[in-house]
Write a structure and sequence with these properties.
Helices cover about 40% and strands about 20% of the residues. The chain has a single domain, classed as Response regulator (Rossmann fold), CATH 3.40.50. Helix 2 (about 50-60) packs parallel to helix 3 (about 75-85). It contains 5 helices and 6 strands; from the N terminus they run ββαβαβαβαβα. Helix 3 links the parallel strand 4 (about 60-65) and strand 5. With about 130 residues, the protein is α/β, with parallel strands linked by helices. The protein has a 6-stranded mixed β-sheet with strand order 3-1-2-4-5-6, with helices on both faces.
């Protein structure tokens, strides 16, 4: 089963978050942060195309996407998701700060772009 994270928010609604990262270590770190904040973990995707296929099946409320991955990178995966669902809310988590990458993220109208160690920023974006 692929990765979905589910959180019951203060207003009682359920928020589903898809996590896409090729590093099992980083997935575990992100999942740990989310679980400590009350999110329930259901699965994970290891590259952009796997994330895209899972997005189509699960229709998550948020996508947490790495940029540099083996297989399909996060920018390409996000483009696939946005072509299928222009309203997709994607949060990029990466160590990459290259201006060209940042430009591409902005073109995709991502909900956010944060460094992988900025876990509070991630939680703030998801929990509003």
């Amino acid at each position: 089963m692929k990765h979905l994270l589910t959180k019951i928010l203060k207003d009682g609604t359920v928020s589903r978050v898809l996590v896409v990262d090729d590093s099992s270590f980083m997935r575990k770190r992100i999942i740990s942060v989310l679980e400590k904040a009350g999110h329930l973990v259901a699965g994970q995707a290891a590259d952009g195309s796997e994330g895209y296929e899972l997005y189509k099946k699960c229709h998550p409320d948020y996508v947490i996407m790495d940029i540099t991955m083996r297989g399909t990178d996060g920018i390409t995966g996000a483009r696939l998701i946005k072509a299928w669902d222009p309203g997709a809310r994607i949060i990029f988590m990466s160590l990459m700060t290259d201006p060209e990458i940042v430009r591409q993220v902005k073109e995709l109208n991502a909900l956010g772009f944060i460094r992988k160690n900025e876990h509070n920023g991630l939680l703030n974006l998801i929990q509003g």
